[in-house]
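hi! just following up on the protien thing from before. the input was this:
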Amino acid sequence: MSAESWPPQLKNWVARCLGQMTDANREEAQAELRKVIAEAFSNKTLWTTDWDGVQLQSNDHNTQSNKKTKKSSISKHSNNNTLDPNDAAALNRRAARFQREHEIERQKTTAAQRQFANLSLSRSHTPLYGDDPEGDPNVPNWDRHTIVGTSQEIFKDYLRLTSDPKPEQIRPYHVLRTTLEELKKRWREKASYNWICSQFKSLRQDLTVQRIKNDFTVSVYEIHARMALEVGDMVEYNQCQAMLRNLYDLGISGKVEEFTAYRILMLLHGRNHSDLNLYVGQLTPKLKESPAVQHALAVQRALSMGNYHSLFDLYLNAPNMGAYIMDHFVPRERARALMVMTRAYRTLPLSYIQHELAFDSATETKDFLNEHKAGTWQNPNAPDIELVLDCKPAYTGLAQVFEEKYRRVQIKGAV
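and the predicted 3d structure came back as:
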């Protein structure tokens, strides 16, 4: 919020408020002053507020006290000091007094304006008035209060900000580009995800503090989102996805088609049908032609129609990292498909279930059925590949577990 864009009435009001402050109430009054201006800015009423009628509560006591003192002084001396219009000496004394008072008021106003300039320092302690800095094309809303970091450290652990950021603790744009390349190299070398995640959050924080929003910013969030998907960190993934939506809306280029498909799959995972229908309805024809988006929409159709054969074929052929998101709702859909299958058949070979529901092995299929109280076999002593499921008792256990385990969906970090 640049103070140069403030209306003159607001500037005069600030100067008047600062002039009314005393050493006793200065800290409290300045805090209230900042709060009033911030609220007016957020409500977009800087230009419509009648600032002459606004009074700080912190200054109100001093003003009332001064008024009472002046009134009592005037009433005390009004009878004794009645001015005689023919007394030239009295008129001269009165003129000199008014001149002195005018000079004192002018000095107070000048001091208040200097204090107002100090009060309006930016978070980076850049003075309000002075030469305009050269705008940064990487910062869409650049102004003279934008922080530019000076730290040359490549790696920096993430710490939540609890005070105003300092330039010497923030890495500038060119250093952040080097940081990203080094982090990608460390990830390929199998560095710890916890360390990588902390470094990426620190990198994102430095971008946010400096208000850098460009192709590089998009790349940082996209790479971190993919890493989070790979390890199943849905909290960080959802934070990255939410920020990417904002960046794409600004018109910054990136892998829009890929992350649009991911969002559709995440909405399917959360069974958020209202948001899903709204989001799909807003897709452009160009986005719908993307293979990744077409795959996500095909998954949506398979789920809505209960076509589990098509669903698990799509699961095995998911583009990009769509399978990592589908991993989160595939167990639920396997259980749902098994409930349909066990009601339609009397017996089912384990090998058929494995193939139809895209399990990696017969052992994995058997373990899944046992975990879902559906491990009822006609030949329990046979090898896994030869096992045959007795469907009628299996359905009862499946229905119970499905109700307990999958009826509600909890998505960590969902935005």
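Residues 34 and 399 are 60 Å apart (CA to CA).
The mean pLDDT is 82.
cheers
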